[in-house]
Design goal:
Strand content: 25-35%
Number of helices: 12
Radius of gyration: 22 Å
Strand order of the largest sheet: 4-13-14-15-16-12-11-7
Bound molecules: zinc ion
Helix content: 25-40%
Distance between the termini: 51 Å
Amino acid sequence: MLVQYPDTWVDSKDLQKDVAEKIFYLSRQLEAYEFTEEGLLLTLCGSIVDEVQLIADVQDLMTKLAAAFKHCSHEILESGSHVASNTVGPDEVLDESRQIYMSSPGVPIFTGDFLKVKTAIDNYIRDYALEFGCEEHLYPTTVPSKSLINSGYLGSFPQHALLVGTVHHDLESLRAIAKEPEAYHDVSKIDDLVSNHAQVLAPTVCGHCFELLAGQKIEKTQALYTATAHCHRHEGNNHSGFERLQTYTMREIIFFGSAAFVKESQEKILKDVKAMFEQWGLQWRIAVASDPFFATGNEQKKAFQTLFRLKYELQVYLPQKDQWIASASFNHHQDSLVKPYKVTGQDNELNSGCFGIGLERITYAMFSQMGVDLENWDSTVREQLVL
Ligand SMILES: [Zn+2]
C-alpha cells in the first residue's frame, strides 16, 4: 500500500525517524514500511478492515510530524574529538557467546564481558553521583498506574505503557487456569481471566523519586538523588536491537531546587559526562532534543522543549551501522512534575531536573567502537572502569 506524502513533507532522515517511531501504533496489521520517492510504502498482514481510514491516519501522522519538525531545531551543538574506526560489528560475537540473549523481543539477558562493562559503567557513574552530593535510593519494578495518570505520562505516551495484570481472584478463573494450564499456551486466552491493572512497569527512574516525594516539602534549598533501575517501554513492532529495547537499565541523577539550580546542575553534569566520554575515547555528539510525544496536541510541547533547551541528548556513534544513538539525556522539567506530584520547596518556585544514562546503549556503543575484546581497549578506559 502506497501512501502519498503530504504537501508539507520534508525530505529528512530525522523526520523519517519520527514517523518510524510511531507508525506501528496506528494498526496492528502493519508489518513493515519503506520511504520511497513516490511515497511511504507499507506492507500489511491479513486483510485490512478499513484501508481508506488507515491511509488517512498515516497521512495525518505525517502531516502532524512534519509540522512539529519545522518548529524544532535539530541542532548538533558539539562533537567530540575522537573518530571511531573499528570496522567489525560486535553483534555476532555477543549473540553467539550469549553475552546478550533476548528472552522476548527487546528483553535482554546479559552475561560475560558485556555485563562486566555495563556494571562497571554504572559503578563509575554512581561514584560520580555520590561525589556530586546525591543520596542513593533503591526502586522497585512497578509504579502505581495512578501515578502515571497524574504526571501526564500516560496521556503523552499511552502506546508505551506496560500494565501489570493479575488473574481474577474468583474461583472460576483460578480453577480454569489451575485445571488445564496447557490450554493457555495461546496466551491471548489468558486475557479473559486477567484484570486489576493498578500497577504499571516503571517507564523511568525518576518517576519512583516523585512517588516518594509526593505531597512532601523539601526542607533543604536543593536536593539530589541517584538510583539505577529497570525501565520498561512497550514498542510494538518497533524493537530493533539496542535502539529500542522493551526493558533496559538507566542510572539517573534527579535534582530539585530553584530554576537556576536545576539549569546549573543540568549544565554541570553535561560538562562532566562529556569529559568522561572524551577520556574513554568515544565518538560522541550533543544535540538539543525533544521527546517524541504521540498524542494529539503535543507537537507544541515538543517545539517548546526545543526552544528553551530543556533537553540535551548525548549521542554515540555506531560505526558499522553509520548511525547515532542517544545514550544519555539531561532534562529540565521546570515545574511540570513537582506540580502534579505536589512536591514543594522552601519558596514557591521549586523546579526539578534529571540526568539519565542508558547503560545498555552506552555499553553497546563501546563494544561497537572499541571491539569485543576488552584487552584491546585503551588503557585509560580500562583503568577508569577497573576492567
Ligand atoms: Zn528522569
